[in-house]
Amino acid sequence: MFKTLLAALVCAATGTALAQPLQPLQPRDVFALEAAADPQISPDGQRIAYVRRSNDIATDQSISAIWLIDADGTNHRDIHPAPGTSHTPRWSPDSQQLAYLQPATDHVSLRILTPDSGADREIAQIRGGATGLSWSPDGKYLAYAGFVGEVGMLAASLPARDPDDDWAAGAQVEERLAFRFDGIGALPIGRQQLFVVDAAGGEPRAITSDALGASGDLAWAADSQSLLFSADRRPDRETLAPDSEIFRVGLAGSDPQALTAREGPDLAPRPSPDGRRLAYLGFDDHRMGYDNIRLYVANADGSGARSLTETLDRSVGNPQWSGDGQAIYVQYEDHGETVIARIGLDGEFAPIARGLGGPDFGRPYAGGTFTVSQQGRFAATINTPRRPAELATGTSEEALHALTNLNGDILDDRWLSDAETMHWASPFDGREIEGWVLYPPGFDPAQQYPLILEIHGGPFTAYGPAFSAELQLMAAAGYVVIYTNPRGSTSYGYEFANLIHHDYPGNDYDDLIGAVDMMLDRGFINPDRLFVTGGSGGGVLTAWITGNTDRFAAAAVVKPVINWTSFVLYSDLPQYFYRYWFASAPWDDPAEYWRRSPLSLVGNVETPTLVMVGGADVRTPRGESEQYYSALRLRGIPSRLVVIPDSYHGISNSRPSRLLTKVAEILRWFETHDPGVETVEP
Do 386 and 424 reside in the same domain of the chain? Predict the structure, then answer.
């Protein structure tokens, strides 16, 4: 229903504009896109603060600003009309004040806005950043997690040198297993610790300070006298499987007390309004590639824990108590869409709304988030295949409806494809597979079109009927685009996701080929003009496909894993991948790692292949792409290496121009090797 309401809103806002001829989406339009994120409804349900993300063409940056709007859709305004970045809005318990963060040159400013008066004041300067900003229930304090640096291993001593001597930089000495992380680069040495600051202003006070640290996954106890947080505080944790517990620490800074103690992550602690119960998320770790994250409720001290979602075959997240403490709201993904549900303490389960969507502009991943007031009114982000994330509100009785139309000024004049839902039987075992199709402007089923198969990453994640600038630009270029959730995708249950456990890539190949065959059977796809691309896990599968068939005219392998042995040991998470995605370490079973490596099939490849990677990628490191490119060139296969300078793994999400570069290079490669194009640019 929310999609109908959003469409009605767009039509009302544009009037007769929709009667005018629509133009295809243009690459430059990406710089004009905006999206709603981090919706925060006030406890009394009267106002909503949210982060409005936009792209700045002059600086090629994504920027954010906090906006306010009344729950009835009126009084929509930017809290800081002047240029600048602000984020993480959080309402005080009495709904009268809004705390938020505003980055400065050498610190982050923690500020409090009083919307009714317009008063805006800085209460603290935070160095090292802040996560998990949260008000105490009594409204007197704010808590957050901040990074505290430590002195690391120093380089060995060298002979003394004169001040004017120009020596090379000293050695970088490392003893940590995890010393870099994608999106950050080299990790600074230190720990996150918890801090509390008086809402009236003052110097932040450290609540934790030991070498084991804390995390920003925190919440206040109902009596405002202690903090709960999730963290892995084992001294030898970096070489072990990830395993966080829930801890409680008093404001006096006593040693944190563990409230959970099982093998498996426990996270997102949420005390009930009366303080008698504790809700949290987690699962028993059986070293599976995928596990359903469950919702638990326990006594305040962690005893008597029981799962409220044992019969729900989906992972849940974002738990929030109802105002009366009798139920917990969560979100989960189902068939590529994000759903809000209410779960009673007796386990009664009731879906409330679906169609939430996240603020990313790149690919159509499921996502979105929500908050709920004490009276049960929601603020959420929703999107559609033709609109990035908008701010919406609703209740259990009132369907989600959009409060904003952030992109009407640009997208009302653009032709954008809806996503047609498709199902087909996998050629491997007949299992039903789901996907979505985008069509080019002026699509005529009596004509013949080129097809792009686009494959998601993860692999344990999901696409859905969501906005994607990348795929819409491909459709605007004249392609039919199909994107799918093959086996291994989430939002279809535990069994479906783990069909690729210790067998990836594998029969997900058949699911993807089945999508192509299904589209060919519809009669409007030219069988000689088939193209395939995907990023990360989708890059793995793209390379796997071209190693098993030559039916595609060209391929674009983006930020792939090509050699599992080198990836496991060179990625930024070496302690994780070999434990969960393989049955043993690479030195114990090298044959299995090689069997599943796309590099093992490079001798079969005949498909012209573009290989693309971010220059700073440490999740699927640059060397993975370069060794595949080298192998293709050595075999004489038409190939091209494209490196996006300074980009981490998330190429499309880092800077707007990188999204455009990614799409432009892929389309140029496909056009170059398209047998249906007579004259092409080399």
Answer: no
Tell me the backbone φ, ψ of residue 248, rounded to 5 degrees: -120, 135
| pTM listed for this prediction | 0.93
Residue 17: per-residue pLDDT: 41
pLDDT of residue 654: 78
Tell me if 197 is assigned to some domain.
Answer: no
Q: How many other C-beta atoms can be found within 10 angstroms of the C-beta atom of residue 494?
A: 14
Last residue of a domain, one of 410, 442, 475: 410
Sign of torsion over alpha carbons 257, 259, 261, 263:
negative
Residue range of the domain that includes 474: 417-672
Q: Which residues, at least 6 apart from 242, have a Cβ–Cβ distance to it below 8 Å?
A: 232, 265, 575, 576
Number of domains in the chain: 2
Q: Are residues 320 and 369 in the same domain?
A: yes
The predicted structure's pLDDT at residue 679: 55
pLDDT < 70 regions, the chain: 1-20, 81-83, 679-682
CB 126 within 8 A of CB 203: no
What residue type is assigned to position 83 of the chain? P
Structure tokens at 446: 């009596």
Name the percent of the chain in helix, strand, coil, to the closest 5.
20, 35, 45
Q: Are 238 and 178 in contact (CB under 8 A)?
A: yes
Q: Count the alpha carbons within 13 Å of 378 in the hemisphere toward its beta carbon.
A: 31
In a domain, 562, yes or no: yes
Q: How many Cα atoms occupy the beta-carbon half-sphere of 614 within 13 Å?
A: 23
Bridge partners, 559 (sequence order): none
List of E strands, 6-76: 23-24, 34-41, 47-56, 61-70
Taking the alpha carbons at both ends of the chain, their separation in whole angstroms is 48
529, 524, 414: which is closest to 476 by C-alpha?
414
Q: Please name the helix (run of DSSP H) or strand (run of DSSP E) that holds residue 270, with its range, or none.
A: strand 266-271
- Give me the pLDDT at residue 381, please: 97
- Specify the length of the chain in residues: 682
Question: What would the DSSP string read from start to end of 170-226?
Answer: PP-----S--EETTTEEPPSEEEEEEEEETT----EES--STT---S-EEE-TTSSE
What pLDDT shows up at residue 362? Answer: 92
CATH code where residue 477 lies: 3.40.50.1820
DSSP strand E in 431-476: where?
432-438, 449-455
522 and 391 in a single domain? The answer is no
| Six-digit token string for 561 | 């894993």
**Residue finishing a domain among 410, 438, 460:** 410
Residue 428 lies in a domain: yes
In a domain, 437, yes or no: yes
